[in-house]
Write a structure and sequence with these properties.
The chain has one helix and twelve strands, in the order ββββββββββββα. The chain is mainly β and 245 residues long. The chain has a single domain, classed as Exo-inulinase, domain 1 (Jelly Rolls). Strands 1, 2, 3, 4, 5, 6, 7, 8, 9, 10, 11 and 12 form a twelve-stranded antiparallel sheet that branches. Strand 5 and strand 6 form a beta hairpin. The relative contact order is 0.25.
Length: 245
């Protein structure tokens, strides 16, 4: 049936994103660990350097929510940061393997308890922002500097798009950033296939004691691919319109 309709031209209506997680960090100055996001199941697993109001107590650590991607979906992982400063230190956003509420350098997408699989960091100065495709043992595998917005400091919106529509072994990521208030994102690292797909968390991380800033918002959304039934329906509609002309 689909083969018989090949060659027809039609435009599908855009599919609305489904919110999996969302948090605007409008809570108290208490520790983030154990608190629930505004939208989404479960609770944050976080070292006590992250607070419910988005403020931080600088130390190396992470804040993650449990999440396992499924094939056939495009995911957008977003974070908005403000007031970021610190000589060579950074905030990070990413898809990872593992979760930890411990303060320590092994718990921030690098290795050990939380390994980054597709993640990006924003430094407090112009030493160079980076994006990574982590391996099974090292989150810093295959890292490159941002190809755009490299000199931005202070405020940033970051986005990682994870596309699983290619199926197992072909998941791909694209890294984006923009200045808050801009209407569109800029690709800062082009689409590449992941080195390792063992993702079971999403979240944030801090480099060390020399960083400051505030997390304004965090979200994870999904845009499902059209089902075969939806494609058939759309193709049939296009065929009927064609016959009426």
């Amino acid at each position: 049936m689909l083969a018989a309709l090949t060659g027809l031209s039609f435009t599908a209506a855009p599919l609305s994103a489904a919110v999996i997680y969302s948090d605007d960090f409008s809570g108290s100055p208490d520790d983030l660990n154990g608190s629930a996001p505004d939208i989404g199941p479960g609770t944050w697993i976080a070292s006590n350097v992250f607070n419910q109001d988005g403020s931080i107590d600088p130390n190396p650590g992470s804040a993650t929510l449990a999440f396992t991607p499924a094939d056939g979906t495009v995911y957008h992982l977003d974070a908005s940061l403000s007031g970021v400063s610190g000589n060579g230190n950074w905030f990070a956003l990413g898809f990872g393997s593992g979760q930890s509420d411990v303060i320590g350098t092994n718990n921030r997408f690098i290795n050990g308890l939380l390994i980054g699989k597709a993640w990006m960091l924003f430094r407090g100065n112009t030493d160079g922002h980076q994006a990574f495709r982590g391996s099974d043992t090292s989150g810093t595998a295959n890292g490159v500097g941002w190809s755009a917005l490299a000199t931005e400091t202070g405020e940033i919106d970051m986005r990682i798009e994870l596309d699983t529509t290619g199926g197992a072994g072909a998941w791909a990521a694209t890294w984006f950033a923009r200045n808050p208030g801009d209407s569109s994102y800029t690709v800062v690292r082009a689409t590449e296939t992941l080195l390792d797909e063992s993702i079971n968390s999403v979240g944030l991380a801090l480099a060390n004691t020399g960083i400051d800033g505030t997390v304004e918002s965090f979200s994870l959304t999904a845009i499902p691919e059209p089902s075969a039934a939806a494609l058939l329906a759309l193709s049939g509609l296009a065929l009927m319109r064609r016959r009426r002309k």
